[in-house]
Design brief:
The chain has about 190 residues and is mostly helical. Helices cover about 55% and strands about 5% of the residues. The mean pLDDT is about 80.
Length: about 190
C-alpha cells in the first residue's frame, strides 16, 4: 500500500505511520494536486496492479474480488473502473463518463461551453420572429418608449426576410440539437 500525503496540515502522515506501518508513505512538501500525487505513488509501485483510491472512499470487503478476477482473466485489458455508489446506494454519476471518444469529450467539455450560445441564439431567433404588435403589447407599457422597446425597434429595422429565415433555421437547429442531446442523456443509466 502506498499513501501519498499532499502537504496536509491535519496530522495525517503521523496517523498513517501509527495505524498503517506497512504502508509506504510519501509526504509531499507542497500540494501539487491529485494527479501529481497519483504519479508520485505510481512511480514507486512494484505490484502487478495499481489501484487509485481517494482518501474518503469506503471499500467493501469483497469490492475488488470481481475486478481483480476480470483483470486476471483478460490480460489484454490495461485499465478498468468500478461502480461507485453513495452511502444511500445511489450510483455516483461522475464515476464513469464512458470510454474516452471524441463524442464523449465533446459532450463533457465542449458542449457545456456552447450552451450559453445555443440559448442566446434561441432567444435571439425568438425575439426576431416576434411580430411588432406582440413586442409592443408585452414590452411597452403605458404608452411610453422603454429601452427594450427601443432596442427591439432598432433590431426590427435591420431585419430582412433573409435574416428572419436564417434565424428561424438556427432556432430549429437549436431546438433539434437540445432535444436530441436531452433524449440521448435520458437513456443513459
Amino acid at each position: 500500500m502506498i499513501v501519498v500525503d499532499n502537504a496536509s496540515a491535519d496530522g495525517s502522515p503521523d496517523m498513517v505511520r501509527a495505524r498503517y506501518p506497512q504502508a509506504r508513505l510519501i509526504v509531499s512538501a507542497e500540494n501539487r494536486g491529485y494527479s501529481a500525487a497519483n504519479n508520485q505513488g505510481a512511480a514507486v509501485a512494484q505490484g502487478d496492479y495499481l489501484l487509485y483510491l481517494n482518501s474518503d472512499t469506503v471499500v467493501a470487503a469483497d469490492a475488488l474480488v470481481k475486478p481483480l478476477a476480470y483483470l486476471q482473466a483478460h490480460p489484454e485489458v490495461g485499465a478498468l473502473t468500478v461502480r461507485l455508489v453513495y452511502p444511500s446506494g445511489e450510483r455516483d454519476p461522475d464515476n464513469h463518463r464512458g470510454f474516452p471518444t471524441p463524442w464523449n469529450a465533446f459532450q463533457r467539455v465542449t458542449l457545456p461551453l456552447l450552451w450559453p450560445g445555443i440559448i442566446a441564439g434561441f432567444m435571439l431567433a425568438f425575439v426576431i420572429s416576434l411580430d411588432d404588435v406582440v413586442i409592443t403589447e408585452f414590452v411597452k407599457s403605458g404608452g411610453q418608449e422603454t429601452l427594450p422597446t427601443y432596442m427591439l425597434g432598432q433590431l426590427r429595422r435591420i431585419v430582412t426576410p433573409e435574416i428572419n429565415a436564417i434565424a428561424t433555421v438556427f432556432l430549429l437547429i437549436s431546438v433539434a440539437f437540445v432535444t436530441t442531446f436531452f433524449i440521448i442523456n435520458r437513456r443513459k443509466p
